[in-house]
Write a structure and sequence with these properties.
Layout lengths: L7 H16 L2 H16 L7 H15 L6 H27 L12 E5 L5 H9 L4 E2 L3 H5 L8 H21 L3 H4 L27 H9 L3 H15 L6 E5 L7 H7 L4 E6 L2 H19 L5 H23 L7 E5 H6 L1 H11 L6 H11 L19 H8 L2 H8 L1
Parallel strand pairs: 1-3, 1-4, 2-3, 4-5
Length: about 400
């Protein structure tokens, strides 16, 4: 499988000199990105010093990745600048319209579970009924009020489309593995400041250790503000949110969204690991000049198994009715039989329209994957995965 376009090499060659120069002085690169973010947002970094300094340190870590490619540097710096722009815009809107902070985010449904466990399928299905709403990719990248000028809305959507096309252009296999569409429901990670998604393309052990001690409370409070801005002036709908990394902080999540329902999808980790590592290799190949697939396997086996342990430990302290368990096998093998019961447990009504919507969602590109991927390519085998995940493997198998 060819993971990157043949254009990656020539483009990296063109960018090599300028990216090397900018990487050698990450503070100067960051300061320039910060000024651009303030100008583009109409806002300011003033009063948000802790967030800014965390991002400055993150850029230092990205710059110090030994294997990073020029495209990897450009992509990382651009992502940081985009996220700062959105943050400053959200803060500006809250300062201009303090009543936004009073917007209630009521009874959200939060889809989580290990990656590659049908969370995307569940997210799209749950977001479609009338009265429900999922944040779209472009909204998470360029958050604004619902009544923004139509021309501005279209410009924001085009910017998001260019962002998605960056990955699709340089990695033609990506649309088949994980398509990104600016006007489709997307993961919370596009608006959350920190998380393991920064480790998808860059191997940063220091940042990984930093995440282990990071308190996600302020990140999630900011994410709630993003939703409040999007909701302001629009009809109230029940939000449907999604990220596999929410497993890292379920209790904190419920502090910010105290009446949320969490849908947790489960799948055999042996299948998850092969599929996930293959997706990770696509991003790593695009953003790094060299890499070892065995590092991808070792890193993500540890991170994903730790996520499960953390989430199960947190779950033991949560009310039982807050989490709805769903079997990947049952959901994908018998969606028309499984989903009415899932809807009921999420306090939703299954209707004829939902049945029609299910057929539409299942027919979309990317919803069906024809094959899985090899564990051995990533230095893994079934015994290693079983040991790492412990009795969680047996629990998943009992679910069917």
């Amino acid at each position: 499988m060819r993971r990157t376009s043949r254009l990656v090499g020539p483009v990296n060659a063109v960018l090599r000199s300028s990216s090397r120069r900018r990487r050698s002085d990450p503070d100067a690169a960051f300061d320039k990105a910060l000024r651009q973010a303030e100008a583009d947002s109409g806002g300011t970094a003033e009063g948000d010093e802790a967030f800014v300094e965390d991002y400055r340190r993150l850029l230092h870590r990205i710059a110090s990745v030994p294997s990073i490619s020029p495209l990897g540097w450009v992509g990382g710096l651009g992502d940081l600048r985009s996220r700062m722009t959105n943050r400053f815009r959200v803060r500006r809107l809250l300062a201009e319209h303090p009543e936004i902070a009073d917007e209630p985010i009521e009874r959200p449904i939060i889809v989580t579970g290990l990656p590659r466990t049908a969370t995307t399928l569940a997210h799209k299905i749950l977001a479609r009924p009338e009265g429900h709403r999922a944040p779209l990719m472009w909204e998470l990248q360029a958050t604004d009020r619902s009544d923004i000028d139509r021309a501005l809305r279209r410009r924001r959507q085009r910017v998001s489309a260019r962002s998605a096309s960056f990955g699709h252009f340089f990695s033609p296999v990506l649309p088949q593995i994980h398509p990104m569409e600016p006007e489709s429901p997307e993961e919370c990670v596009f608006a959350l400041p920190h998380g393991k998604y920064w480790l998808v393309t860059y191997r940063m052990p220091e940042y990984r250790r930093w995440l282990e001690d990071h308190d996600f409370l302020e990140d999630l409070r900011y994410y709630k503000q993003v939703l409040q801005v999007l909701q302001f002036g629009a009809p109230k709908r029940r939000w449907v949110l999604k990220s596999p990394y929410h497993l890292d902080y379920l209790e904190t999540l419920l502090r910010v969204f105290p009446d949320a329902k969490i849908m947790w999808t489960h799948r055999d980790p042996n299948t998850v690991m092969g599929s996930w590592c293959s997706l990770m290799e696509t991003g790593v190949a695009l953003c790094n000049s060299t890499y070892d697939p065995r590092d991808i396997g070792a890193d993500w086996l540890e991170m994903l198994s730790n996520m499960i342990r953390t989430a199960r430990d947190s779950r033991s302290r949560l009310p039982r009715d807050r989490i709805v368990d769903v079997s990947y096998h049952q959901l994908t093998a018998n969606p028309y039989e499984e989903l009415p019961g899932v809807f009921e447990r999420l306090e939703m009504e299954w209707t004829a329209d939902d049945e029609d919507n299910l057929g539409t969602v299942l027919a979309r590109p990317g919803m069906k994957r024809g094959h899985e991927y090899s564990l051995t390519h990533y230095g893994l085998d079934f015994d290693m995965v079983d040991r790492a995940f412990g009795d969680y493997v047996r629990m998943v198998h009992r679910m069917g």
